[in-house]
Amino acid sequence: xxxxxxxxxxxxxxxxxxxxxxxxxxxxxxxxxxxxxxxxxxxxxxxxxxxxxxxxxxxxxxxxxxxxxxxxxxxxxxxxxxxxxxxxxxxxxxxxxxxxxxxxxxxxxxxxxxxxxxxxxxxxxxxxxxxxxxxxxxxxxxxxxxxxxxxxxxxxxxxxxxxxxxxxxxxxxxxxxxxxxxxxxxxxxxxxxxxxxxxxxxxxxxxxxxxxxxxxxxxxxxxxxxxxxxxxxxxxxxxxxxxxxxxxxxxxxxxxxxxxxxxxxxxxxxxxxxxxxxxxxxxxxxxxxxxxxxxxxxxxxxxxxxxxxxxxxxxxxxxxxxxxxxxxxxxxxxxxxxxxxxxxxxxxxxxxxxxxxxxxxxxxxxxxxxxxxxxxxxxxxxxxxxxxxxxxxxxxxxxxxxxxxxxxxxxxxxxxxxxxxxxxxxxxxxxxxxxxxxxxxxxxxxxxxxxxxxxxxxxxxxxxxxxxxxxxxxxxxxxxxxxxxxxxxxxxxxxxxxxxxxx
Length: 503
Prior knowledge:
- Helices cover 56% and strands 6% of the residues.
- It is mainly alpha-helical.
- The strands form four sheets. It has a three-stranded antiparallel β-sheet.
- Strand 1, helix 1 (14-21) and strand 2 (27-30) form a beta-alpha-beta unit.
- Helix 3 packs across helix 6 (149-159) and helix 18 crosses helix 20.
- The longest helix is centred in the C-terminal third of the chain and has 32 residues, at 423-454.
- It is elongated, with a radius of gyration of 26 Å.
């Protein structure tokens, strides 16, 4: 059962989303309670249709056309046309992991039981996910309000046998992919098309993947920071519990405690505990708990937002079988997720900035007291000089990505959708920012590990020696100049894999 995930619209975790994105889950299926909820909500929709009542998007048009009543014989065409007309995304396709995450989240929000779609809609969506039929979804096309309409429409289109899908490593027509997977095409009934595209699932899926990568990068950054402190023969006194206790921000306390644990038992520290003329280290060393901790608190907030959002009903209109009501609202508006993604990108840019300052100190002989650029033979060799230059380029990208998207509302839909969130843009930025931070952290780990070598035979702490050994398994000590790109790639892969979490 470890590779099987049941969804009910209420209990999905961010870790579940990532496991499905990585195809570590072999089967996603509806929980029995969700099957019942879907059927109950569907009966209410069918009852209202049979009674000829006006229901937005079911017996009427959409958006500005909500006042147009649709004749009974045209209602199925209404749903088909909605999907076809909205599958107008632009740009490169989302990667497979992101597409899988979107499909899972759309199924989970429908499983909530407040959409009123046909149960077969959710079942086929999960069947495609399990069979590896991945719709081709262009990354641009949503403003994060009235749902992530265009990208979700590309997923819905594949269920109907139109559009393109990746299956077995090849992009093929959707009908061919469904046939190869022994899956039927979906005939959209009343409300089905609208249910498939109304919601925040693209914004949220990209956000979940960005956050999970950012969380791993932050854990690795504290290992890098502790190694840098040791390489620069800094003091851990500022991480003292008494100092942290009089400014009790949760993230600051957590970062300080982890730094203390990482540095416990260091021979390097003991070698300069007495007689060191420096009373205070530079802020990039001394203020790690305050800066790393601020990011921890930011990431905690983002996590809370996403944990709520992945288990929310974001359709419109929403069906409430308990009261027998169908209500129109605005749960499709992604503003809270968009703002959280902007907040995430800002926090990651600042982490990149403090890491770059430590890298510069490690490579600058005036700041470190170590050989210039940690070269084996400074002068004839350049050592790690270029890595700080490369990081400066990445940091500029990070700072650009920190510019918020969620303040850039552009009215759409002939003025009916007059305030939008720009959620997908914010989430795309956050995901790129998380990747960029991981690259910077990889460089700091490489530079700090090399600085430790300059202090041998002294040992750093047992915890840091273990992490140092992990780095050395991938990247040997400098014995002369060499091409460094592969080194960064190897350590970056460890950062992304979560290798530098607590050992």
